Amino acid sequence: MSEPNPVATLNAQGLLCPMPVIKVQERIADLRPGTVLEVLATDPGALADVPAWCRVHGHEVIESVQDGREIRIRIKVN
Amino acid sequence: MLAAKVVMDQGIHVEGINFFTGFCVESHTHAIRAREGGAPKRNNALWVAEQLGIRLHVIDVIEEYKQVLLHPKHGYGQHLNPCLDCKTFMVRKALAWGFMAERGFDFIVTGEVLGQRPKSQRKAAMPMIARESGADDRLLRPLCARILPPTLPEREGWVDREALFGFHGRNRKPQIELAQRLGFSEWAQPAGGCCFLTNAHYSRKLTDLWTAQGRKDYELDDIMLLKVGRHIRPAPHFKLIVSREAGENRYLEGYRKRFPSLRPTSHLGPLCLVDGQTAPSDLALAARIVARYSQGREAAAVTVAAEDPNGECRELTVAPLAPAELPPAWHV
């Protein structure tokens, strides 16, 4: 069985786009490939912008969930 | 988008940089305003990057940008847009970012067109930006390169000058034709329309902020709040920010611990922040203004809750201000 991926977290709640994207970009710069970054946000724009940023940088969005105001995006760093 | 594509088609590896100054019309504004029945707006810079298939780096320059806006060496454009200094700043930042040892980029590409914009794309301004940014001949403008002196990437043969363009003037038809030739059916907002500082109304509100605080300075929250709501200044020492719709209401909610706030309770109505020091008579006037924008505007009396940042709340029952009692000059 393979080792589970290490998980990092980023709280971007209360930030409006593009700040969640900027924070994700800064956080991922310090993470190793294979790490899963869990992002919490409240701006609905993050639901479109964070995955778009991941696509152009080759990272994989493995989950994107909105529950009321809270948004949770899980990204596998490549 | 076009400039990047033209260079990419010559086999050059291109990555995009998008600077966030705090004055971008997109993103924040779209995030604030309610989107009832509509899909979230796209981030144009990311959209362009996806169309081109390039990486995009979004850089926060909010703090550094203050010096550009507050002390522009070349002054302002029609409003508070420091276009020449802004362009120079961004090229300088791109230079510092792209030429860092680990990134190893060789030159900078921008989409400027000679004579397209009245200030930053004048014939005299183009070499000034290259010189003052420090980029010098490492700044390539593929859309008008043919009518400018050859730059380093052209002289070195990294790019074929003959395959670049010589567009000039305000007419965007050549660019639109090129976009169609390159297979683009849609493109992002051209320069100017994406910056609040080119907006007369926004610039007026920013000037009012500086006048009221007695100094030319700002924090991110200040410039964000200028994008939201009606700004009404009944007296030099206080201003009201009255939300216009549900999205703005939600946004202003986040500031209730920083500013006194007003909200009608007897009728549906907007949330209002009070910026400044108010006497009881000022607060009563503010409540009447808020009532004027509530569904009780025709009622004899409207009850308005006034809450301090520390949560202390009291109610005022007021007559809504009649339209004639609200001078146009109060609207910032």
Short structural description:
The complex is a heterodimer of chains A (78) and B (332). Chain A is built from two helices and four strands; from the N terminus they run E-H-E-H-E-E.
Looking at this protein, list some descriptive labels:
heterodimer; A: 78 residues; alpha+beta; Translation Initiation Factor IF3; four-stranded mixed beta sheet; B: 332 residues; Rossmann fold; six-stranded antiparallel beta sheet; two-stranded parallel sheet; elongated
One letter per element, helices H and strands E, the order of chain B comes to: HEHHEHHEHEHHHHEEHEEHEE
Shape of chain A: globular
Q: Given the structure, what is the number of helices of chain A?
A: 2
Uncertain ranges of chain A: none
Largest sheet of chain B: 6 strands, antiparallel
Measured as a percent range, the helix fraction of chain B is 25-40%
CATH fold name of chain A, please? Translation Initiation Factor IF3
Derived structural class of chain B: alpha+beta
Average pLDDT of chain A: 93
Considering residues with a beta carbon less than 8 A from a beta carbon on another chain, report the largest interface and each chain's count. A-B, 19 and 27 residues
Percent range for β-strand residues of chain B: 5-15%
CATH topology of the largest domain in chain B: Rossmann fold
Q: SSE order of chain A, as H and E?
A: EHEHEE
> What is the terminal-to-terminal distance of chain B?
36 Å
CATH class of chain A: Alpha Beta
What is the CATH homology-level superfamily of chain A? TusA-like domain
Estimated radius of gyration of chain B: 24 Å
Query: Which class of secondary structure composition applies to the elements of chain A?
Result: alpha+beta
Helix count of chain B equals: 12
Query: What is the 3D form of chain B?
Result: elongated
